[in-house]
Amino acid sequence: MTKAINLMLKIWRQSEKNKGHFEIYAAKEISRDMSFLEMLDVVNEELTKTGKEPIAFDHDCREGICGMCGSVVNGRPHGPEKEITLCQLHMRHFSDGQTLVIEPWRSRAFPVIKDLVVDRSAFDEIIQAGGYISANTGSAPEANNILIPQSAAEKAMNAAACIGCGACVAACPNGSAMLFAGAKISHLALLPQGKPEAARRAIHMIREMDKQGFGNCSNETECEAECPKEISIVNIARLNREFVKANLVSE
Length: 251
Ligand code: SF4
Ligand code: FES
Known about the structure:
The protein has helices at residues 36-49, 121-130, 150-160, 167-171, 178-189, 198-211, 222-226, 234-250, and strands at residues 5-13, 21-30, 72-73, 76-77, 99-103, 112-114, 117-118. By secondary structure, the chain is α+β, with helices and mostly antiparallel strands.
């Protein structure tokens, strides 16, 4: 049996009524086999038992696929381990007696709703601005009718792995959403079905990004380093190329 650990948690608490502050909690007898979110569940159970307000945090699948979870743990979005979402992070990566500082994503475009929950609807607005194919293609065609080079299919699939969690924005000193938008633009632009609208899509999504208050990219590469799905900054270069093409077409 693995030995349980005790932790000190410094957690950001915020509601409509207060501007936000850190509160300290003890997380006692935490199994190393628990996920980070299960550890928060245990803390919340204790808070509820003592009549205190539980800590609000986002989650859904708890399997690393939906993109709902995410907090900054000791300064790192999704915690200290690479290529993993907060829900898939296990307590075995922490040591007994450690202090964990847990904060929401910090970005102008992601206002805090409550505690660790932020409003990421700005991402939805970016998708609505162009992250789709508008051609009415009818029912699914025979897959072999449109031949796609394997390398293009692989790059498109890699870009499509983005789960929209927002860690890239939280990691970026400019609060830029370029990695997210680059992934969405790439996965469509690389495939024949998405190519015709690629340039127009880039212009609309970039305009929306600016409107939503995201910053620009200055090649810090923090986004790539913290992305749980290994989305490469190559996708930002592709976004920029589509944007340049769009401007050349409209000139
Ligand atoms: S690019 Fe990575 S960090 Fe950014 S939203 Fe997509 S999965 Fe999350
Ligand atoms: S809860 Fe779905 S990715 Fe973490």
